[in-house]
């Protein structure tokens, strides 16, 4: 069976090879991207960016558009200095490996469900609502598509801000509705199927609207909304996905 799977994989890579896209994680060059995600009515109705059915997957390593976007921004655009401390919540495996190899001063990875997701040993059990580090410890926090799972997202935002140094930066990505001003949430709904129908995934508790920036600003972040998709079309990133680049003000 494994031999047949390997043959099938090779045929897939051969048939989709090309020069339109380049995966920065595995180096595969393709003429198109694999279609991934779910075509749920709510995601179509609310035009949710960062979710839904879309051409976004690498045929070779299965990386997704939103992970490649973070790679482009963090590795290519920010050109991270090595003498910084970084907290990476729910770390994406491919991006995390690159950051580990970057030899940062300190690179902490954490998630609440480390056993369930079979993370490697370096990923600690960390609750974003109660991060076990002192005030102003980290230079940067990466939190990609996590806040939509958390009922008290304001508390999570405040906790991220607490552990950030003055002048520190956070990348806080979420699936966001392009055509809704207000965030849609209802904490009385706990049924997984109902959540899937209303929020696009069984374990999501909201679909963020364009007021997401205001939510971040209300906890004290200065938010820069950045779109680098034109510069990294070859990575197959979503042209509509902005990066929510947040800064903790240096009041000194």
Rg from Cα: 19 Å
User: What is the mean predicted local confidence, pLDDT?
Assistant: 94
- In the CATH scheme, the class would be Alpha Beta
> Which word captures the global form?
globular
Run of helices and strands? HEEEHEEHEHEEEHEEEHEHEE
Side by side, the strands of the main sheet go 8-7-6-9-10-15-14
Give a verbal description of the structure.
This is Methyltransferase domain-containing protein. Pfam families: Methyltransf_11. By secondary structure, the chain is of the alpha/beta class. The protein has a single domain, classed as 3-Layer(aba) Sandwich (Rossmann fold). Helix content is 27%, strand content 26%. The protein has helices at residues 2-16, 41-45, 65-77, 93-101, 153-163, 192-199, 212-218; strands at 17-22, 29-30, 34-36, 48-49, 54-57, 85-89, 106-111, 123-125, 138-144, 164-173, 176-177, 184-185, 206-207, 221-226, 243-248. It has a seven-stranded mixed sheet, sandwiched between helices. A two-stranded antiparallel sheet has the order 1-2. The protein is globular, with a radius of gyration of 19 Å. The model has no long low-confidence stretch (mean pLDDT 94).
């Amino acid at each position: 069976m494994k031999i047949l799977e390997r043959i099938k994989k090779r045929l897939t890579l051969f048939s989709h090879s090309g020069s339109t896209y380049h995966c920065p994680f595995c180096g595969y060059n393709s003429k198109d991207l694999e279609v991934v995600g779910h075509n749920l009515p709510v995601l179509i109705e609310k035009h949710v960016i960062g979710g839904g059915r879309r051409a976004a997957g690498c045929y070779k390593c299965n990386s997704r558009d939103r992970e490649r976007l973070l790679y482009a921004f963090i590795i290519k655009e920010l050109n991270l200095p090595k003498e910084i401390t970084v907290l990476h919540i729910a770390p994406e495996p491919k991006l995390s490996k690159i950051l580990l190899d970057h030899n940062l001063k300190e690179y902490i990875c954490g998630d609440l469900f480390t056993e369930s997701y079979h993370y490697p040993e370096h990923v600690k059990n960390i609750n974003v609502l109660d991060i076990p580090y002192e005030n102003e410890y980290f230079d940067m926090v990466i939190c990609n598509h996590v806040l939509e799972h958390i009922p008290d997202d304001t508390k999570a935002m405040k906790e991220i801000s607490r552990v950030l140094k003055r002048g520190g930066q956070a990348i806080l990505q979420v699936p966001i509705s392009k055509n809704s001003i207000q965030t849609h949430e209802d904490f009385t709904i706990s049924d997984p199927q109902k959540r899937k129908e209303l929020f696009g995934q069984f374990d999501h508790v909201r679909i963020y609207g364009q007021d997401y920036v205001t939510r971040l600003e209300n906890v004290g972040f200065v938010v820069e909304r950045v779109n680098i998709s034109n510069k990294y079309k070859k990575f197959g990133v979503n042209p509509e996905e902005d990066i929510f680049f947040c800064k903790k003000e240096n009041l000194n």
